């Protein structure tokens, strides 16, 4: 202990503390409002510096609140008879009020009567200069010594030692574990209660006295709040109890208790030293009023905000699940803090609001809002949720899974709604806080651009949970400008990327512009555009966050399914035929099987956890609304009239693509397609309410005007969206889009030409080395046409397309190429499946094979089974399309470059289905491969029937020396009669067709007996006599017109030097043609029966034995 005078030492410490407090509060001081109260509470000569002798200078409603009650009574007095004023002894009131609020007295007897609940400030009582020697009158408390009363009380230490027995009694009466903060909160609460009581009891008080009382209460409140702020900054300035958290944690505890769900049920009456929900807002307002000037509030409440938002409960492995819902207390506490505007602004000023040193991965852990925003259900960050709610996924019932969905989605809705309310409050607090919030979102985007990559390590970027939660907040911000009539769509600045530096697009691919073109566009428009508005900021930030966040999370979810498929194949390979059972390898094999099953169960549980959020109906509904809005905005930006959707854009679009559209990031268009495709595939019921019309309009716009998109794979995705939209769903035979495609005016006018244009111009030109094979996963036109084929309007549109002969012939040629490839692949793989199944059926021989051989064959079988169903399904649909088209229009199929190819394809497949090798197509469980040979045979025969009256087709079939045999038709007719597939009338028509073919064949054989043919008369590719020779301009090669036309249908290059070539470029060679014609006339002098009426060709009975 110090050897000096204890009293002097105490005064020295007191003076030092008060000087520090005064220094921290002086800038915000100003004299109280003038009034009689200044005379009623005269200041005495100060003994020590005062921390806050005057009312706070902050622009505050407090003085107004204290005077406002006077207005109402004064008006009432005018309306009522005069009332004798209520006499109030202001000096007695001061003494009673200060004693009650501060729980102090200068009169020992008062303390004794209260059982020392009221503390006797013995040293201060003895120190009073106005205390006369021998005076026995009790010492009253007054407004001029409030600061000294408060300091004296705060300096009391229950743990202190003293030789003064009277003082010991005082120390012993102090609550031993009450902190300074708790004491000051108790004072504030009692003051609040007294002020409310005063205003009620003094309904008609003398004006002077109520003003005096109000100013005293204001001064008292100001001092209590000042010392509270000082305690929050430096908890050790005054004596404190040992062994407990002091300062900011005490206020944090009150904030955490605001949520009824975060703590056990307790009494509705809060302890004297704590704050309840009805008090916390007023308390925070008083703190803000006192410390907001000069940003002092940053030091007072900054630590509170940090400790609240980095609370340890946010790092629990259980996250937002489980019985501990303490995160709700953090949300409620933060909501209370931001409800005070100056505190909300202060939060966005703190360094941790948007930590400059944060990386992509640490951003959500180092920024204030990060820990709250990373709460979700995704398994990478929160694996316990998947393990808890979706363990043993294969054993859970649908009701059980749906119950878990409902529980977790309810929690997510509560969290995300609160997050939006918090961010919304911050945005509205001030222009500075709004900018800070926007920059927070922008930083999250710019740091995480790597998330969009194909192979990204999860620990190097922000979590799915964090990014999706931010997306949910932005979608809520976007709702006000996404009204049904699009009244605010023009407020979105199309020059945003030219004037805003918020988003970094340097590495982004543009829709149809180079980097140099984009940079030039920015330079040209930077000075001509105004600063972006809030709507534009939210719109473009939502687009970016969707790309790097929500859509990437969807891709992760899609990858789970691929991983499960891989594991299933691995499991099938390990399991094999079971020959390992009873062998020395049984234990090891069983362990491997169990491990694979456990891995599959883990991934399936993760899938279910992802579905909780990704397929949450509320999030999906908002996302569809946003993507529909984006698609409408994109179309409006390229609509020459800038009026879409009222009226709807006219298609096709102009050839010139606006630069403002070309320079947009490609991900805007891609994300619209990807998200709509995801919903169509995984949650088609989400379109029941809205979105179908917008989807169809968007798809048709870019299918009819494909030159607006550079990326061929993106174009294919647009078509794929329509395809998935017509797959059967529920009671809808043609899916969610079938009805719209058959009724919407835009679809009725443009769907057929759009599909044909896409089929012809886009699928072939992917630029990849595998483009011939890639197209079959994208060319789903057969399914779409099937969904609209019964509509007369669409069929008329097809007939209209045939008027453009060259275009339609290219379409037919590609369709025949597809059928040829698909049928060849599907029948080939079915043959291989048949062979392996036959081999395995002979168990005795199979058992003699080595284990490695059996595993290899089983692996091959599984691979074939996966591929076969796809080929057979698409092949069957394309043959069906060919059947429908040949029934509707015939002329295009009779073009020289088409008819021979069509005949050869049909004959080849007829041979495969009914010829000698048809038995090789017999497989176990054909439905598994979606193989229906009878339906396939019926469709092929129907194509023959549709074209049976065309002489060119008859001649083409007859000229097919590779596959045509009349015996094939006889076998096919027998099968068609037995099943039955065709009527007797149709079978007779088929018989007559074969008769004509046979006649034509005989004629062709006679024509071909031409002897030796000069080489110059032969086609260089087909080695047949040219009928219409033409010269290719670049290679100078002479070739038959029909041959080069057929080539150009699928390849726009000269086959001899790969130079660009069109049919219009070829040069006729009339001199050579004349010589060929003369040669043929000299060698052949026979007439043919082609194109003659049937009656002149044969005369046979109608019946067919």
Automatic annotation (TrEMBL):
UniProtKB keywords: Cytoplasm, Nucleus, Transferase, Ubl conjugation pathway
EC class: transferase
Span of the signal peptide: none
PANTHER family cross-referenced by the UniProt entry: UBIQUITIN CONJUGATION FACTOR E4 B, UBIQUITINATION FACTOR E4
Subcellular location: Cytoplasm; Nucleus
PROSITE patterns associated with the record: U_BOX (PS51698)
Start and end residues of each U-box domain: 1012-1086
Protein name: RING-type E3 ubiquitin transferase
EC numbers for this chain: 2.3.2.27
Family to which this protein belongs: Belongs to the ubiquitin conjugation factor E4 family.
SUPFAM superfamilies: RING/U-box
Alphabetical list of InterPro entries matching this protein: Ub_conjug_fac_E4_core, UBE4, Ubox_domain, Znf_RING/FYVE/PHD
Gene Ontology biological-process annotations: ERAD pathway; protein polyubiquitination; ubiquitin-dependent protein catabolic process
Molecular function per GO: ubiquitin-ubiquitin ligase activity
Region (Disordered): 1-65
Comp. bias (Low complexity): 36-65
GO cellular component, one term: ubiquitin ligase complex
Catalysis: reaction(s): S-ubiquitinyl-[E2 ubiquitin-conjugating enzyme]-L-cysteine + [acceptor protein]-L-lysine = [E2 ubiquitin-conjugating enzyme]-L-cysteine + N(6)-ubiquitinyl-[acceptor protein]-L-lysine
Keyword Signal attributed: no
Pathway assigned to this chain's UniProt record: Protein modification; protein ubiquitination
